[in-house]
Each structure stands twice: as C-alpha cells, then as structure tokens.
Amino acid sequence: MSNTFFAPRLNRRNFLKASAALGGSLVVNLGVAANSLLAAQEFAPNAFIRIDRRGLVTFVMPQVEMGQGIYTAQAMLIAEELDVSLDDLRIEAAPVNEALYGHPMLRRQTTGGSTSIRAFWTPLRVAGATARRLLMQAAATEWNVDVASCRTQDGFVLHPDGRTRRAYSELVDRAASLPQPPAEAITLKQPSDFKLLGTARKRLDTRGKTNGTLKYGIDALPAGTRIAAIAISPVLGGKPISVNQTAALAIKGVRQVVITDDSVAVVADHTGAAKKGLEAAAITWDDGPNRAVSQVDILRLLDEKSQQAGAVARSEGDVAAALSAAAVRIDAVYQLPFLAHTAMEPMNCTVHVRNDACELWVGTQNMSSAKQATAALTGLPPEKVIIHNHIVGGGFGRRLEVDGIVHAVKIGKQVKGPVKVIWSREEDIQHGYYRPYYYDRLSGGIDGAGNPVAWSHRISGSSIFARIAPAAMRNGVDPDGVEGASHLPYKLPAIHVEFKQVEPQGVLTSWWRGVGPSHNIFVVESFIDELAAAAKMDPVEYRKRLLSENPRALKVLQLVAEKAGWGNVLPERQGRGVAVQFAFGTYLAMVADVSVAKDGTVRVTRIVTAVDCGLTVNPDTIAAQMEGGALYGLTAALYGAITFSEGRVEQGNFDTYPPLRIDEAPHVETHIVPSAEAPGGIGEAATSAVFPAVTNAIFAATAKRIRTLPINPEDLKA
Amino acid sequence: MAFSITINGQTHTADVDGDTPLLWVIRDVIGMTGTKFGCGQALCGACTIHIDGVPTRSCVTPIDSIAESRITTIEALETLPHGKALQDAWIELEVPQCGYCQSGQLMSAAALLAETPQPTDADIDSAMSGNVCRCGTYQRIRAAIKLASA
C-alpha cells in the first residue's frame, strides 16, 4: 500500500492557518456530548484531525455529505487507523481551502464522480495512522520504551507491560510538540487487521434526519435574514423588461425588489410573501437570442451532426471490413433525453455580502467554484469568501454547478444584511444544467457462430468537459462522453468509437448522477443484447463468452445470474434483463425483472445486483447506494425527459417531471463480492446499470427493443 | 392580521396575510426548520405535518384555515403514539440517505400507524405514495414502518 500523501496538508503552519478559517465553519454535531469551550491546547497533526486535552477527537471532513454516506465512510477511515471508536469522533465540514482539503484526483475541493473513497482511501488512513504514531511516540518517550513495543486500543496507548496505558487525551501536549514522523515510520493496517473497515456501521448522521434537527443549507437562518423568491428568465439568455415594483412592494411583508441581468427577486420577511410579491411583480421578459429553441430543431441538429465523422476515441481492428464480411449486421440509433436532477432540497443559497467579506450558507458539491465565482462577482479576494457548507439534501451532480450561488450573490450585492434566495420547484426544473441529450449511432456484426466481429459506436452530444475543463479534452474527445463506451469489459476483435461534440443552442448541460456511464452503459449493454438476440443466444451466456478474460466481470455476472434465478421460465409479458459494467472502478452486474401490462405500462418488480467494488468501507452503505442508485436511474428510464419549446422548458414540477413513488418501487437486492482489490466508487454505479437491465427485460418480455428513452408505454401495447 | 396558532403544544403568533402557506410560517416566521419545502404544490410530501392528527401538506395550507386546530411537526414526532418507534426503526434500518424528505415521510408514517397499526403493503403504498424520495429509500421505509408496527 502506498503511503503517498497529499503533501501540503501535513504541515502544522498550514493547519493553523486553516483552523483560523474554521472559526466560521459549520459544525456538524453528530450526537457527541457538546463541550463548552475549545481547549487551549490541541494536538493537530494534520488538517483532518484535532484531539484536545479532554480527548475530544474532531475530524474535519473534506467531502460533502449528500446522502451517499461519505461522512460516515470517511470517518471510518480515520477511526480505523487512529484506533478510536467511531462514536468518539466529532465531525466538522471543512472550510474552503484547496491546499488542505483539495480532492487528490480532481485537484479541487469537489465532491463527485463516485470518487470520495477512491481518492481519500489512502490520505485519510495516513492522516489517522500519523496521528496514532505520534501519540504512541509521546507515550513511548514518557515511558522510556521503544515505540515499536507499544500498541493502541480504542483511544489508549498500551505499555508493553500489558498493564499501563495512557488515554490519547493525556498525550495531547507531548504529541503536539513532536516533529512529524518520516513517511516510512507510518504503517497502515493490513486489511486482515481492520476492525471497522468492511463492517456495517450505523451512519453518524441519521438521528438528526429523523427528528428535524439536522440543518441543510435551506435551513440556515443567520440573524436578520430576509427571504428572496427568484424568477429567472424562462429562456436562457433573456432579461427582464418590465417589473411592477409598486404592486410587489404593496404585498404585506415584501421589503425590496431586486433586478439583475437575468432575474428578478422579491425580498420579504418570509417565503410566502416573497412568492406572492413575485407574482404581483408581473414580470415581462425579453426572451433574447434563444427565443425560438425547440425540441424538434435540437433533434434535427443531432440527427444531422451524428451523420458526420467525430473525433476518434478508440479504433482497433478493421471495423469496416469486418462489418461488410459479417453474417448479420445491425445498425441502430439510440437516443437519450435531457434530464433534470430534481434533488429534494430545491436550489437555495443564503448570502451576506459585506464590504470586507462575503459569507455563504449553502450545501455545495463544489467549494472551489463557489469561492471563485463569489470572489469574481464581489471583487473580494478569494480568502474573504467564507463558505458554511451544509449537508446537502440531494446533489446528483446539480450542486457541482454554482449558478445558484451566482444568482444569490448578484441579489445579495443589492441587499443590506443576509438574504436567503430560494428557488421554487418550477425554477429548479426549468433552469437546470441538464444531462445532455445523446444521439448515438451504432453498427455491429456477428459471424456465423454468433460471435461479434465488429463494433462501431459514434456518440453525439454536448461536451461538459469542453465547457468546464477544456484541457481534459483529448483531440476532440470528451473523456466523460465516451466513458463506458470506449473500453468495454468484453473482448471484441474490432472496435471503433467516436465522439462528435454537438452543442444545442439555448441549453445548459452538466453532470448527472452516473455521468458518462449513465448514458453509455445503456447504449452498450442494449446493443450487446441486440447482438445476443441476433445470435439467438441467451443474454447471460453470450456475455459470459465475451468475458472469458475478465474474471472480476465474469464473477459478478455469474453471481447475479444465480441470485436472480436467471433461466427460470416467466409468465407471458414478464421478462428478465441483464447488464454488466465496469465503471467508477467498480464491477457491477444487475438483473431486472419486469412485467409489461397490455396497455404498455412497465412495472419493475425486482432488481438484483452483484457488485465487486474492491475493499469495502461500509457494506450497508454500498447496499443503500445500490438501492438508491437503481431507483434514481429507473425514474429517468420510465419518466425522465426535459423538452424545449419556444426556448422554454416544458416541464414544471413533479406532476410533469414525475419521480418514482413507493408504490412503483421494486425491491433491490445487493450481493457484494469479497475482494482485496483497490476500492471502487459506488454512488453512481447502479444508476447507469439499471437503464439497460430494465430495457433488456422489456425486450425479453415483449420482443420490443427500446432504443429511445424514456420508455414509452405506447410502443409496448400488446 | 396576526394569527395565533398552536404548534407542538406551544402558541405562536404570526403577522402575515391569511393566504400565507403554513409551511412558511413554520419555517421562516417561527424558525422551525424540520418541516421541509420540496415542491410547493402538494406533489412531494416533504412539508407534511399533522393538523388535528391528519397528515397535511403545509405548503398548500393557508394559515387562515387553521383556527384552533392542533399542529404537530417533525420536532414533536416523539410525542406521537408511534413516533419513537418509527424513529428507532428508521435508525435501525438506516432509512435516510440525504434525509431531506424524511421529515415528511415520518409524519405520513406516523399518521398511517395511528390509523392502521398493522399496515399491509397496500396500506403503506396508499399512505406513503404522496411522499417522494429522490434517494430511493422506499424499500427501507416500507421495512421500517413494518418494524415500527411490530
């Protein structure tokens, strides 16, 4: 195991700078008895850990909790190596400080891409092990024994005599005075010695979610806060023309009307008055250059551009020759819609712009961009932007974008005192950064024995990397745009994959749970199923043949087939579908059972997953992410579609952009393959797998191939 | 005008228009933030409270309709007959993910158990299908309601 550590943070001077900023940070009290005062003397070996003289262990969390269980999982990494009870950790959200809390993979202070465990698996364990080593050294010095002869247990250093021990709290002063140990002195535990990692632990943030005490960003209420309801131009790029300020101000409780370049906000004593004032304001808009944007035009553009060559992401073998020699050739167009995120916590941000600083109370996945955007808008130096990051009421990628913060700061600049800007659900759905619409062209061929001989896939759609990180583009290929498509788990003799960037006018696009794979796995796993059907072979058997050189993928497939009862005969109009993927560093196989009514209504009755995500942290959280990830994708597969007309999004609330409800929810069963491999990501894996598992099951039930999402019951009538 | 309302046994006054949804009185005027805003149209159930024991979407309930009715919010869930059992079951089975919808889920579940102490799956579907969870915790919600009712 490498001991490489994210270098700058093991530095006490840096830590002290960070702790000054901590003064204003959100403290997430997770049920540990509150202590009245911070001790004067603390042992703070790195930016993640502080131990005070009373033994209070504080863990400063670099990542944001948005339901994925990371507060608990990362706390487990620290507690394991520090050798303290999980219940004894007090957790704080990190302040914005990339040098100390930057993401080792993403190089910013960001939470996304199912990377939190992958990125911090080693750094946090090293942080815990380093602190433990210093505490042992402190005790060994006091006892005048060799540090190597000491052990630790649940917050104590044990003397080699087997009787004497010192609590960590007693060693704080001495440990704080010791120099950092050299990297080679830090030994991480072997997995066989883990006490916490790999065991199901209760999440640390649950109680506050059952009694109303946990505070999300939308719950922040600094003294004197007023509430603003916001209307953003219904067409991207439009601006307000007229606002009836008099009518708005006549509403009881309304204090101020704020007009920005593309929005109008009504500031009031409470949201009810603000919303009423916004309605009274009777805003008229100049729709601007995107006034004519329509779904029909977007699809025409994608259809046209997708017929042109794209940038080559991968090309091996002679696909053209193999296709023309194939016994059977299949050509297909797959289409995936724009999708909104609809986190349960609507977009919001509380902001207090002052001359000398700007404070934000928000739940964000992207501390770095929040800080940069706020500094740019206010003209303040970045270090004068103070962000109180909160537990997030659903991220799904939406809170990687900071447009909600940008709108709030623009409004806040015109308001004296703190103002909380709340988006209505309609604003939230109609002003998204949508998952791109993808238009994919595929051609595949099989030989006389049914074996695939050629695979060609051209992906056309918006590039997120081209907008936010153009340096990540590779000769015109968006690495996210082809993730899950360019490298398949299957052995194929000839493969050619292209990416064609197409940017529809008047639409913002960004990450959506499952990112690139949430699009590509649907296409790839559907098309493999098409080849299996053309070869007249069982979909599981077909995949097994192609996975003979991929033991981890083969194993999850075999396990899921066994657990799902693959091969059992099902009644008419019921079907079972399978999907296999390697994405986010995790192998996953999923089987969905569906039943299709005569009117075409699809009911998913059961989902079984088998997952190999390497070494595990909290198996129950893995199961929870399988359940949640699958249902998030299933909602989109059944219902998700954002469409445009006259520049406007046609959907508005949960009636027109429907979520899956409890009476439609299948039972999700999770089987974890024990593994000693490096940890993989888990938050998004099931989201990408569920689309093809379900549509392949629909094919099994009805012989109808779904190539366009969302699933349309009209196409499935008996 | 100023309204006087009773929430969790305590009297509060709010000087707001009569058509102000109760949700905003509870959250913004009184400052009790356990009750959540999700959709504003009674489509998601995040704002569910009890009015005289009846589960009600506070986002569409105007304050002038309350009069002397007793309002109970998530902060007083424990005082309801099955409240503590539900909270314990939620923790035991690790129901919440992001947790934002869970105040509403728990208030709907408490109303269900008050009416139907041993609910069937169909009872649960019927009582809980107005509460949306985007994290997909439904199967654990179902199991936790059954655990709390056992």
UniProtKB/TrEMBL annotation, chain A:
Lipid metabolism as UniProt keyword: no
Residues annotated as signal peptide: 1-39
One Pfam match: MoCoBD_2
Cited SUPFAM superfamilies: Molybdenum cofactor-binding domain
EC number in record: 1.3.99.16
Domain Aldehyde oxidase/xanthine dehydrogenase a/b hammerhead: 211-289
Keywords linked to the UniProt accession: Oxidoreductase, Signal
Gene Ontology MF term list: isoquinoline 1-oxidoreductase activity
Keyword Oxidoreductase carried by entry: yes
Protein name in the entry: Isoquinoline 1-oxidoreductase beta subunit
Source organism of the structure: Rhizobium rhizoryzae
From TrEMBL, chain B:
2Fe-2S ferredoxin-type domain sequence ranges: 1-77
EC assignment: 1.3.99.16
Alphabetic keyword roster: 2Fe-2S, Iron, Iron-sulfur, Metal-binding, Oxidoreductase
Organism field: Rhizobium rhizoryzae
PANTHER family: BLR6218 PROTEIN (PTHR44379:SF2), OXIDOREDUCTASE WITH IRON-SULFUR SUBUNIT (PTHR44379)
Keyword RNA-binding (UniProt): no
Alphabetized Pfam families for the sequence: Fer2, Fer2_2
Keyword Endoplasmic reticulum among record annotations: no
InterPro entries attached to this UniProt entry: 2Fe-2S-bd, 2Fe-2S-bd_dom_sf, 2Fe-2S_ferredoxin-like_sf, 2Fe-2S_ferredoxin-type, 2Fe2S_fd_BS, Beta-grasp_dom_sf, Diverse_Oxidoreductases
UniProt cross-references to Gene3D superfamilies, sorted A to Z: 3.10.20.30, [2Fe-2S]-binding domain
GO molecular function: 2 iron, 2 sulfur cluster binding; isoquinoline 1-oxidoreductase activity; metal ion binding
Record's protein name: Isoquinoline 1-oxidoreductase alpha subunit
